[in-house]
Write a structure and sequence with these properties.
This protein is of the alpha/beta class and about 375 residues long. Helix content is about 30%, strand content about 15%. The strands form 2 sheets. Strands 3-2-4-7-1-8-11-10-9 form a 9-stranded mixed β-sheet. Strands 5-6 form a two-stranded antiparallel ribbon.
Length: about 375
Protein backbone atom coordinates (compact mmCIF):
# COMPACT_ATOMS: atom_id res chain seq x y z
CA UNK A 1 0.00 0.00 0.00
CA UNK A 2 1.34 3.47 -0.84
CA UNK A 3 -1.67 5.76 -0.47
CA UNK A 4 -4.32 6.17 2.21
CA UNK A 5 -8.01 7.06 1.94
CA UNK A 6 -7.68 9.71 4.65
CA UNK A 7 -5.09 12.45 4.41
CA UNK A 8 -2.35 11.82 6.98
CA UNK A 9 -0.23 14.69 8.23
CA UNK A 10 3.06 15.37 9.99
CA UNK A 11 2.24 17.88 12.72
CA UNK A 12 5.09 18.00 15.25
CA UNK A 13 8.88 17.66 15.43
CA UNK A 14 11.08 16.94 18.44
CA UNK A 15 14.87 16.99 18.65
CA UNK A 16 17.69 16.36 21.10
CA UNK A 17 21.17 17.78 20.72
CA UNK A 18 23.41 15.55 18.61
CA UNK A 19 26.64 14.45 20.30
CA UNK A 20 29.70 12.49 19.11
CA UNK A 21 29.66 10.18 22.15
CA UNK A 22 26.86 8.75 24.34
CA UNK A 23 25.87 10.93 27.28
CA UNK A 24 22.75 9.19 28.67
CA UNK A 25 20.76 5.96 28.59
CA UNK A 26 18.99 5.44 25.26
CA UNK A 27 15.51 5.88 26.70
CA UNK A 28 16.33 9.36 27.99
CA UNK A 29 16.98 11.10 24.62
CA UNK A 30 14.02 9.20 23.19
CA UNK A 31 11.71 10.64 25.84
CA UNK A 32 13.21 14.10 25.40
CA UNK A 33 12.67 14.08 21.62
CA UNK A 34 9.17 12.66 21.95
CA UNK A 35 8.23 15.31 24.51
CA UNK A 36 9.34 17.98 22.03
CA UNK A 37 6.99 16.94 19.23
CA UNK A 38 3.54 17.43 20.88
CA UNK A 39 4.17 21.02 22.03
CA UNK A 40 5.52 21.84 18.58
CA UNK A 41 2.17 20.65 17.21
CA UNK A 42 0.06 22.14 20.01
CA UNK A 43 -1.12 18.64 20.90
CA UNK A 44 -1.68 17.04 24.30
CA UNK A 45 0.84 14.17 24.68
CA UNK A 46 -1.70 12.27 26.79
CA UNK A 47 -3.86 12.01 23.64
CA UNK A 48 -1.16 10.17 21.68
CA UNK A 49 -2.06 6.49 21.41
CA UNK A 50 0.44 5.10 18.91
CA UNK A 51 4.23 4.80 19.03
CA UNK A 52 7.12 3.41 16.97
CA UNK A 53 10.65 3.42 18.36
CA UNK A 54 13.68 2.67 16.20
CA UNK A 55 17.22 2.00 17.38
CA UNK A 56 20.61 1.36 15.84
CA UNK A 57 20.96 -2.07 17.41
CA UNK A 58 19.01 -4.80 19.15
CA UNK A 59 17.49 -5.06 21.72
CA UNK A 60 15.83 -1.66 21.87
CA UNK A 61 15.10 0.25 25.08
CA UNK A 62 11.72 -0.38 26.65
CA UNK A 63 8.92 1.15 24.60
CA UNK A 64 6.73 1.01 27.71
CA UNK A 65 9.27 3.14 29.60
CA UNK A 66 9.31 5.68 26.77
CA UNK A 67 5.50 5.75 26.53
CA UNK A 68 5.25 6.29 30.29
CA UNK A 69 7.89 9.03 30.17
CA UNK A 70 5.92 10.82 27.46
CA UNK A 71 2.72 10.64 29.50
CA UNK A 72 0.71 8.44 27.12
CA UNK A 73 -2.44 7.17 28.81
CA UNK A 74 -2.95 4.24 26.45
CA UNK A 75 -1.14 2.53 23.60
CA UNK A 76 -3.52 1.31 20.92
CA UNK A 77 -0.83 0.80 18.28
CA UNK A 78 2.84 -0.04 18.68
CA UNK A 79 5.72 -0.97 16.38
CA UNK A 80 9.49 -1.16 16.62
CA UNK A 81 12.04 -0.62 13.88
CA UNK A 82 12.11 0.55 10.30
CA UNK A 83 14.26 3.04 8.40
CA UNK A 84 13.54 6.33 6.73
CA UNK A 85 10.10 6.91 5.27
CA UNK A 86 8.78 3.36 5.74
CA UNK A 87 7.76 3.77 9.41
CA UNK A 88 5.79 6.86 8.42
CA UNK A 89 3.96 4.86 5.77
CA UNK A 90 3.17 2.06 8.21
CA UNK A 91 1.91 4.59 10.77
CA UNK A 92 -0.21 6.24 8.07
CA UNK A 93 -1.88 2.90 7.37
CA UNK A 94 -2.69 2.48 11.08
CA UNK A 95 -4.13 5.99 11.29
CA UNK A 96 -6.11 5.45 8.10
CA UNK A 97 -7.58 2.23 9.50
CA UNK A 98 -8.59 3.91 12.76
CA UNK A 99 -6.27 1.79 14.90
CA UNK A 100 -5.05 4.97 16.60
CA UNK A 101 -5.50 8.72 16.29
CA UNK A 102 -1.98 10.10 16.82
CA UNK A 103 1.39 8.36 16.41
CA UNK A 104 4.86 9.32 17.61
CA UNK A 105 7.76 7.92 15.61
CA UNK A 106 11.14 8.18 17.32
CA UNK A 107 14.63 7.39 16.03
CA UNK A 108 17.36 6.73 18.61
CA UNK A 109 21.00 6.64 17.51
CA UNK A 110 24.14 5.77 19.41
CA UNK A 111 27.75 4.99 18.62
CA UNK A 112 28.07 2.01 20.95
CA UNK A 113 26.20 -0.23 18.50
CA UNK A 114 28.57 -2.98 17.35
CA UNK A 115 30.02 -2.80 13.84
CA UNK A 116 30.52 -6.33 12.56
CA UNK A 117 30.69 -8.12 9.28
CA UNK A 118 27.49 -10.06 8.50
CA UNK A 119 26.75 -13.56 9.76
CA UNK A 120 30.08 -14.24 11.47
CA UNK A 121 29.90 -16.87 14.18
CA UNK A 122 31.60 -15.32 17.21
CA UNK A 123 32.79 -18.69 18.50
CA UNK A 124 34.22 -20.18 15.31
CA UNK A 125 34.82 -17.16 13.08
CA UNK A 126 32.99 -18.93 10.28
CA UNK A 127 30.77 -17.05 7.86
CA UNK A 128 27.44 -18.37 6.60
CA UNK A 129 25.19 -17.47 3.69
CA UNK A 130 26.31 -15.24 0.80
CA UNK A 131 28.93 -13.68 3.07
CA UNK A 132 31.06 -16.82 2.88
CA UNK A 133 31.91 -15.87 -0.69
CA UNK A 134 32.72 -12.25 0.18
CA UNK A 135 33.93 -11.68 3.74
CA UNK A 136 37.12 -13.80 3.45
CA UNK A 137 38.12 -11.63 0.50
CA UNK A 138 37.59 -8.30 2.23
CA UNK A 139 34.01 -7.56 1.19
CA UNK A 140 32.14 -7.53 4.47
CA UNK A 141 31.14 -3.97 5.26
CA UNK A 142 28.57 -1.76 3.57
CA UNK A 143 31.18 0.81 2.47
CA UNK A 144 32.98 -1.95 0.56
CA UNK A 145 29.76 -2.93 -1.21
CA UNK A 146 29.14 0.72 -2.03
CA UNK A 147 32.68 1.03 -3.33
CA UNK A 148 32.03 -1.61 -5.97
CA UNK A 149 28.86 0.08 -7.20
CA UNK A 150 30.41 3.54 -7.05
CA UNK A 151 33.44 2.54 -9.12
CA UNK A 152 31.28 0.95 -11.81
CA UNK A 153 28.94 3.94 -11.85
CA UNK A 154 31.72 6.52 -12.06
CA UNK A 155 33.40 4.60 -14.88
CA UNK A 156 30.20 4.15 -16.86
CA UNK A 157 29.14 7.80 -16.78
CA UNK A 158 32.45 9.61 -16.38
CA UNK A 159 31.62 10.93 -12.91
CA UNK A 160 34.60 12.69 -11.33
CA UNK A 161 35.66 12.82 -7.66
CA UNK A 162 35.11 16.58 -7.76
CA UNK A 163 31.49 16.12 -8.79
CA UNK A 164 30.90 13.75 -5.89
CA UNK A 165 32.65 16.23 -3.62
CA UNK A 166 30.06 18.92 -4.39
CA UNK A 167 27.44 16.83 -2.60
CA UNK A 168 29.54 16.74 0.56
CA UNK A 169 30.71 20.36 0.38
CA UNK A 170 27.23 21.76 -0.30
CA UNK A 171 25.55 19.70 2.40
CA UNK A 172 28.17 20.87 4.90
CA UNK A 173 27.29 24.45 4.00
CA UNK A 174 23.67 23.60 4.78
CA UNK A 175 24.60 22.01 8.10
CA UNK A 176 26.23 25.22 9.26
CA UNK A 177 22.74 26.77 9.24
CA UNK A 178 21.18 23.85 11.12
CA UNK A 179 21.39 24.09 14.92
CA UNK A 180 20.92 20.32 15.27
CA UNK A 181 23.81 19.33 13.00
CA UNK A 182 26.92 17.65 14.40
CA UNK A 183 29.34 19.40 12.01
CA UNK A 184 30.01 23.06 12.76
CA UNK A 185 32.94 23.80 10.41
CA UNK A 186 32.95 24.40 6.64
CA UNK A 187 34.25 21.71 4.29
CA UNK A 188 36.44 22.62 1.32
CA UNK A 189 37.02 20.73 -1.92
CA UNK A 190 40.65 20.28 -0.92
CA UNK A 191 39.69 18.76 2.43
CA UNK A 192 37.32 16.33 0.75
CA UNK A 193 39.87 15.21 -1.85
CA UNK A 194 42.50 14.87 0.88
CA UNK A 195 40.40 12.64 3.12
CA UNK A 196 41.62 9.06 3.39
CA UNK A 197 40.30 6.13 1.42
CA UNK A 198 37.88 3.76 3.11
CA UNK A 199 37.12 1.52 0.11
CA UNK A 200 38.21 3.30 -3.05
CA UNK A 201 36.51 5.35 -4.48
CA UNK A 202 34.78 5.82 -1.09
CA UNK A 203 36.60 8.36 1.04
CA UNK A 204 36.10 9.05 4.72
CA UNK A 205 34.03 12.15 3.93
CA UNK A 206 31.74 10.11 1.66
CA UNK A 207 30.47 8.28 4.76
CA UNK A 208 27.74 9.51 7.08
CA UNK A 209 28.66 10.74 10.54
CA UNK A 210 27.95 8.42 13.52
CA UNK A 211 26.12 10.34 16.24
CA UNK A 212 24.18 10.00 19.46
CA UNK A 213 20.77 11.51 20.02
CA UNK A 214 17.14 11.18 19.08
CA UNK A 215 14.63 12.81 16.71
CA UNK A 216 10.85 12.30 16.79
CA UNK A 217 7.83 13.35 14.78
CA UNK A 218 4.08 13.24 15.36
CA UNK A 219 1.51 12.11 12.75
CA UNK A 220 -2.27 12.30 12.79
CA UNK A 221 -5.28 12.56 10.49
CA UNK A 222 -6.26 15.69 8.57
CA UNK A 223 -9.36 16.41 10.67
CA UNK A 224 -7.18 16.74 13.76
CA UNK A 225 -4.17 18.27 12.02
CA UNK A 226 -5.94 21.29 10.56
CA UNK A 227 -6.76 22.62 14.04
CA UNK A 228 -3.19 22.41 15.36
CA UNK A 229 -0.40 24.98 15.62
CA UNK A 230 1.24 24.67 12.20
CA UNK A 231 -0.11 24.18 8.70
CA UNK A 232 -0.17 20.39 8.13
CA UNK A 233 2.40 18.68 5.93
CA UNK A 234 0.81 15.68 4.23
CA UNK A 235 2.21 12.31 3.23
CA UNK A 236 0.98 12.19 -0.37
CA UNK A 237 2.35 8.70 -1.15
CA UNK A 238 5.14 6.27 -0.39
CA UNK A 239 6.47 3.15 -2.07
CA UNK A 240 9.22 0.61 -1.59
CA UNK A 241 11.27 -1.73 -3.71
CA UNK A 242 10.17 -5.39 -3.81
CA UNK A 243 11.69 -7.23 -0.89
CA UNK A 244 13.94 -10.24 -1.28
CA UNK A 245 15.95 -8.65 -4.11
CA UNK A 246 19.57 -9.69 -4.69
CA UNK A 247 22.29 -8.12 -2.57
CA UNK A 248 22.49 -4.45 -3.51
CA UNK A 249 26.02 -4.52 -4.86
CA UNK A 250 25.15 -7.49 -7.09
CA UNK A 251 21.77 -6.24 -8.32
CA UNK A 252 21.78 -5.15 -11.96
CA UNK A 253 21.75 -1.39 -12.40
CA UNK A 254 18.84 0.25 -14.17
CA UNK A 255 20.31 1.82 -17.28
CA UNK A 256 17.17 3.44 -18.72
CA UNK A 257 14.45 5.48 -17.08
CA UNK A 258 13.44 5.48 -13.44
CA UNK A 259 12.87 2.55 -11.09
CA UNK A 260 9.48 0.85 -11.58
CA UNK A 261 8.50 1.51 -7.97
CA UNK A 262 9.07 5.25 -8.54
CA UNK A 263 6.40 5.19 -11.23
CA UNK A 264 3.97 3.82 -8.63
CA UNK A 265 4.99 6.54 -6.19
CA UNK A 266 4.31 9.36 -8.62
CA UNK A 267 1.07 7.84 -9.86
CA UNK A 268 -0.32 7.52 -6.34
CA UNK A 269 0.70 11.08 -5.48
CA UNK A 270 -0.74 12.46 -8.73
CA UNK A 271 2.59 14.21 -9.34
CA UNK A 272 5.73 13.72 -11.39
CA UNK A 273 9.50 14.20 -10.98
CA UNK A 274 9.30 17.74 -12.37
CA UNK A 275 6.91 18.68 -9.54
CA UNK A 276 9.42 17.90 -6.79
CA UNK A 277 10.80 21.11 -5.26
CA UNK A 278 13.17 19.86 -2.54
CA UNK A 279 15.15 16.65 -2.81
CA UNK A 280 15.94 14.61 0.29
CA UNK A 281 18.18 11.85 -1.02
CA UNK A 282 19.43 9.16 1.36
CA UNK A 283 23.11 9.81 1.93
CA UNK A 284 24.51 7.09 4.13
CA UNK A 285 27.22 7.35 1.46
CA UNK A 286 27.47 10.25 -0.96
CA UNK A 287 27.30 7.98 -4.01
CA UNK A 288 23.81 6.85 -3.01
CA UNK A 289 22.58 10.40 -3.65
CA UNK A 290 23.51 10.12 -7.34
CA UNK A 291 21.86 6.71 -7.66
CA UNK A 292 18.65 7.93 -6.03
CA UNK A 293 18.42 11.07 -8.15
CA UNK A 294 18.40 8.91 -11.27
CA UNK A 295 16.30 6.04 -9.91
CA UNK A 296 13.58 8.53 -8.96
CA UNK A 297 13.71 10.18 -12.37
CA UNK A 298 14.78 13.56 -10.97
CA UNK A 299 17.58 13.74 -13.55
CA UNK A 300 18.17 11.63 -16.69
CA UNK A 301 20.10 8.41 -16.32
CA UNK A 302 23.82 9.14 -16.14
CA UNK A 303 23.38 12.89 -15.59
CA UNK A 304 23.46 13.15 -11.78
CA UNK A 305 27.19 13.87 -11.60
CA UNK A 306 26.88 16.76 -14.02
CA UNK A 307 23.78 18.05 -12.24
CA UNK A 308 25.49 18.42 -8.85
CA UNK A 309 28.71 19.80 -10.37
CA UNK A 310 29.48 23.22 -8.92
CA UNK A 311 26.82 22.90 -6.22
CA UNK A 312 24.68 25.79 -7.54
CA UNK A 313 21.57 23.79 -8.43
CA UNK A 314 21.54 21.83 -5.17
CA UNK A 315 22.19 24.65 -2.69
CA UNK A 316 19.37 25.57 -0.32
CA UNK A 317 18.64 28.60 -2.53
CA UNK A 318 19.09 26.72 -5.79
CA UNK A 319 16.64 25.16 -8.21
CA UNK A 320 16.30 21.92 -6.24
CA UNK A 321 17.83 22.09 -2.76
CA UNK A 322 19.49 18.80 -1.80
CA UNK A 323 19.31 17.84 1.88
CA UNK A 324 19.16 21.46 3.11
CA UNK A 325 19.68 20.31 6.71
CA UNK A 326 23.08 18.79 5.87
CA UNK A 327 21.91 15.22 5.49
CA UNK A 328 23.50 12.27 7.20
CA UNK A 329 26.90 13.38 5.92
CA UNK A 330 26.84 16.57 8.00
CA UNK A 331 23.79 16.63 10.29
CA UNK A 332 24.52 13.09 11.43
CA UNK A 333 23.53 9.48 10.80
CA UNK A 334 19.83 9.16 11.61
CA UNK A 335 18.95 6.61 8.93
CA UNK A 336 16.93 9.14 6.95
CA UNK A 337 14.95 10.32 9.96
CA UNK A 338 16.48 13.79 9.90
CA UNK A 339 15.39 14.10 6.27
CA UNK A 340 11.76 13.73 7.32
CA UNK A 341 11.90 16.35 10.06
CA UNK A 342 13.67 18.79 7.76
CA UNK A 343 11.10 18.19 5.01
CA UNK A 344 8.36 19.09 7.50
CA UNK A 345 10.19 22.27 8.53
CA UNK A 346 10.80 23.27 4.91
CA UNK A 347 7.22 22.70 3.78
CA UNK A 348 5.95 24.68 6.75
CA UNK A 349 8.25 27.49 5.64
CA UNK A 350 9.99 27.74 9.00
CA UNK A 351 13.46 26.35 8.22
CA UNK A 352 15.10 29.70 8.97
CA UNK A 353 18.22 30.76 7.04
CA UNK A 354 18.26 27.53 5.02
CA UNK A 355 14.67 27.90 3.81
CA UNK A 356 14.18 26.90 0.18
CA UNK A 357 12.69 29.42 -2.25
CA UNK A 358 10.02 27.03 -3.50
CA UNK A 359 8.63 24.56 -1.00
CA UNK A 360 5.33 23.07 -2.09
CA UNK A 361 6.64 19.50 -2.38
CA UNK A 362 9.48 17.31 -1.16
CA UNK A 363 10.63 13.85 -2.20
CA UNK A 364 12.48 11.60 0.23
CA UNK A 365 14.41 8.37 -0.32
CA UNK A 366 15.54 5.80 2.21
CA UNK A 367 18.41 3.31 2.28
CA UNK A 368 20.00 1.79 -0.84
CA UNK A 369 18.51 2.65 -4.22
CA UNK A 370 18.05 -1.03 -5.10
CA UNK A 371 16.24 -2.04 -1.90
CA UNK A 372 14.92 1.12 -0.30
CA UNK A 373 11.80 3.25 -0.26
CA UNK A 374 10.69 6.75 -1.15
CA UNK A 375 7.91 9.12 -0.23
CA UNK A 376 6.40 12.44 -1.29
CA UNK A 377 5.34 15.17 1.14
CA UNK A 378 3.12 18.10 0.17
CA UNK A 379 1.84 21.15 2.02
CA UNK A 380 -1.64 21.40 0.52
Amino acid sequence: MSKTRKRIAFVGCGYTPITPTPTTRESEPAIEACLGAPPDAGFDPAEIDGINTQVHHWPPPSTAEIAKGIGMREVNWQREGGLGILPAGIAAEALDAGQCKAVLICKIMNTIAPVTTPKIDAATGRVAGPGQFEVPYGLGYSMQHVGLRARAYMHRYGVTPEQVAWICVTQREHALMNPWAIHKKPLTMEQYLGSRWIAEPVRLLDCDMPVNGSFAYLMTTEDIARDLRHPPVYLAAWASQPQGAPRDHLAPEILKGMSPFAETLYRDAGLGPADMDIWFMYDGFSFLVLHWMENLGLVPRGEAGRYVDGGTRIRFDGKHPLNPHGGQLSEGRLHGHGHILEAVQQLRGNAGPRQAKKFDTAILSSVFAESGAAGILVRN
